[in-house]
């Protein structure tokens, strides 16, 4: 399949390792990956902060950049983020309609219909749960609110993780409770956000895991920022990075040569975040 | 005002768009973040709230899970409410006609002040100087107790939790469990201090506390001539009012006094008796986590020789017409005050109900309070309420009538932004971000500027302190230094000529 990757603004500028892992994983699975160059941001920050008018041109730009998927130029758009996918799927058309732009709204819906979060793309569209990954670490998984309740991804990320060789997957207590990030919520209500983070960190530490994973870099930035501040020694790693990790044998899936040319994801885990 | 022949507020737009400022308890005086900061420092409060919401959450989930058609019930509840909102004036007129036909009197109140004045006048006409009260959000909303007190009438709350709040000279912090923020040791101290005839050896054993309250209340039930209640439902096609409760104190008030005055928000009407079937399944499971509430009382007008011989219904607008006219906000009127959204909300659980400054706290309160009272500018505490959520969506999943609270919060955030009279720092930042995010060239330039921030990370690659406003993040969280290479730069470098 020909798949366009939505890097997300955060993924491009702050945590590129999740995007790199997404590209390498999809290429390893034999797909043709493009990174539409004009892309910037889905507009979620504007929408969720109440700047619905300011969001209109941002949404229009995003719909223009990913419009080719609606015309059949690509088979799918994928984002390594539940919340950005949620914004595309549930908010783009709402923003356009509220501004009275019905044409933009229906174009946005056509793009949204082929835009997936990573675990949705892998399990529902590509029909794969074992991606041939190898990751010998004790991992706990935070399901993230928008993946759970906006996209209803259910246990798809866990299906993928369970198939990873070498992994020791441990259940996170109160997994479905918000970590307290919430975009500008973390700044506007910093005290409440910190209290929510404290409880999430307690849950993560209770598992004894060395890695906390999720499929939203924003939540990981928050949880990882707190775990780092407390010097807990627990690191946060995006789901894509785990799925992109291999033991180098390329055992389960035929890997195009390019997949090995980038830095190995295991090395990247030592990087900040 | 207060005769049956006045126009329905929702019919002719006679009611003001918003509930009046300065009357009742819908509007706080400080912003949510300021209130929450204080609450978060109260370790006892954090414990009390965390424990209580956790218990209710688990109970609710267990009884919801045993209903095979829960989703269908939610859809039915939502559909009935949408129908009610679509023909509210017609249903209210039908309700009025049926209440009057069965010997009751109906009064229309455009706002809280009119509702309070009507009740005070009726109490005086009944020759009473004290009333017993059934737990009622509507009269909490209007500040009826204070209005009666100013008029020389004492109002006694008979719901156990409301009594604890009243005796403690406190404010309710939860829709269903107003004293959720108190533990039993605190309740014992309140009783010892405030109940004249209480046993001085009272312990904090729940049964002993309940018996003390029972003895205290029983004397009042037997002496009161007037009762004031709210209503959970009003059935238009029969003129029947209904209250559901757990303790039976409400039923005492509804049956013993000579005069009964019911104050209800206009949105509480349902078309037919059969519609109760849906809500009487949804409400108790969602609110108290019970299959059925212990007491369901219904009454229709007056019955000679049985129960109150005078019945007055006060139909109150108090901003609801304005909400009804808002196509985005209208769904907030579907709320049946079950409080399920409070109990699953991670923000409510930590900050508590007082932080919302309104009798309607939690996720639904964060949209309902500003909708009812309006947002008067960027400094209005109401402007901060819609942001008192991480938009995690747990409230929507818990709502028995499927109110899309996260979407309502976003719409109210837009109302908050649009209330700005002068540009705020946030406005400037959002405009700048919009400019960068609509042009690939400018976006890349912004990324380049940001990557200069690598120096802040030093050798550790972690930033631990940033200037305001980002300092609100680094107060408790590190930030990774920006990477050397963006994802798009990496893709262009490693896959030359293959960007598209």
- Estimated helix fraction of chain A: 40-55%
User: What's the overall average pLDDT of chain B, rounded?
Assistant: 92
* Rounded Rg of chain B: 26 Å
Structural class label of chain A: alpha/beta
Order of helices and strands of chain A: EHHEHHEHHHEHEHHEHHEHEHH
Q: Unreliable segments of chain B (pLDDT under 50, ≥5 consecutive)? A: 1-9
Q: Walk across the major sheet of chain B and give the strand order.
A: 1-10-7-4-2-3
Total strands of chain B: the figure is 12
Query: Beta-strand percentage of chain A?
Result: 5-15%
Q: What does the main sheet of chain B amount to?
A: 6 strands, parallel
> How many separate domains make up the residues of chain A?
2
Q: Helical element count of chain A?
A: 15
Q: For this entry, what is the oligomeric state of its chains?
A: heterodimer
* Biggest sheet: strand arrangement of chain A: 2-1-3-4
Task: Name its key features.
heterodimer; A: 273 residues; alpha/beta; Rossmann fold; 4-stranded parallel sheet; globular; B: 500 residues; 6-stranded parallel sheet; 25 helices; disordered N terminus
Structure description:
Chain A is an alpha/beta fold and 273 residues long. In chain A, 48% of the residues lie in helices and 11% in strands. Chain A has helices spanning 9-13, 16-28, 44-49, 52-66, 82-90, 92-98, 102-112, 118-125, 145-150, 156-162, 185-188, 190-206, 217-229, 239-244, 265-268; strands at 2-5, 32-34, 76-79, 115-117, 138-141, 168-170, 211-214, 235-238. A four-stranded parallel beta sheet of chain A has the order 2-1-3-4, sandwiched between helices. Chain B is of the alpha/beta class and 500 residues long. Among the domains of chain B are: 87-321, 3-Layer(aba) Sandwich (Rossmann fold); 441-495, no CATH class. Chain B is 49% helix and 10% strand. Chain B has helices at 9-12, 32-41, 43-65, 70-86, 88-101, 112-125, 137-142, 144-150, 160-167, 184-194, 206-223, 249-255, 276-287, 320-324, 340-344, 346-351, 362-373, 381-384, 394-398, 405-418, 425-437, 440-451, 454-457, 471-474, 487-494, and strands at residues 105-109, 130-133, 154-157, 226-229, 233-235, 240-245, 259-265, 269-270, 295-300, 310-316, 462-463, 479-480. Chain B has a six-stranded parallel beta sheet, sandwiched between helices. In chain B, strands 8-5-6-9 form a four-stranded mixed beta sheet. Chain B has a two-stranded antiparallel sheet with strand order 11-12. In chain B, strand 5 (233-235) and strand 6 (240-245) form a beta hairpin. The longest helix of chain B has 23 residues, at 43-65. Chain B is globular. Residues 1-9 of chain B have low confidence and may be disordered. The interface between A and B is large, with 77 and 74 residues. Chain A: Residues 4-86, 139-223 form the Cysteine-rich domain. Chain A: Residues 253-273 are annotated as: Disordered. Chain A: Pfam families: CCG. Chain A: GO terms for molecular function: oxidoreductase activity.
